[in-house]
Amino acid sequence: MGSLIYGVAPAIRIEDRVLRHLQAVIVGKLRRGESFSFNWDQEPGVGEDEATDEAAAHGTVWIGPASQLYFRYDGPRDGHVLNREWLEVLMRASNSAGGLHVVPEPVQQSGAADAASASHH
Fold first, then answer.
1. Among 75-79, 85-89, 109-113, 114-118, which stretch is predicted with the lowest mean pLDDT?
2. Cα–Cα distance for residue pair 14/97, rounded to 1 Å
3. Coil vs helix vs strand at 115
4. What is the reported pLDDT for 76?
5. Please, which residues bridge with residue 59 across strands?
6. DSSP of 37-106, one letter per residue?
7. Is residue 36 scored above 80 in pLDDT?
8. 53 and 76 in contact (C-beta within 8 Å)?
């Protein structure tokens, strides 16, 4: 399980696979100079640390080009092929009034998985 650390705020615990997809969307938006909100609220892969009460945590942060973010992963560097369909769903959410939030990962078509794997290597 990785963490998204925003400025001096407490780390938001996020499963590595989810965080890799969020990072791709966040970095893409920041490269284009776009600002947006990131919301979490007992969503799959967010705040599921049983040792603390973070599973009940929720919140919103505003992310803009001047934001200082640090993505930290607990698992291995490789092993997470990005799901293009999920990236598109997350990007649409980030462009909405509700802001970026974790949504369930859509099932990837086999051709899409091969294309994502080939473009990732």
1. 114-118
2. 22
3. helix
4. 85
5. 40
6. EEEEES-TTBS--TTSSGGG-EEEEEE-TT--EEEE-SS-SS-----HHHHHHHHHHHTSTT-EE--PPP
7. yes
8. no
Three-class secondary structure of residue 22 per DSSP: helix
Confidence of residue 4 (pLDDT cuts 50, 70, 90): confident
Collapsed DSSP state (helix, strand, coil) of residue 13: strand
CA angle 17, 65, 15 (to 5 degrees): 15
Residue 44 near residue 104, CB atoms below 8 Å: yes
For 102, the token pair is: 């974790």
4-13, 74-83, 86-95: which is most confident? 86-95
The candidate with the shortest Cα–Cα distance to 12, out of 102, 118, 105, is 102
43, pLDDT greater than 80: no
Taking residues 63-67, report their average pLDDT: 92
Q: CA 41, 47, 56: angle at the middle one, nearest 5?
A: 55
Report how far apart, in Å, the C-alpha atoms of 35 and of each of 1, 32, 61, 65, 94 are. Answer: 26, 9, 11, 7, 9
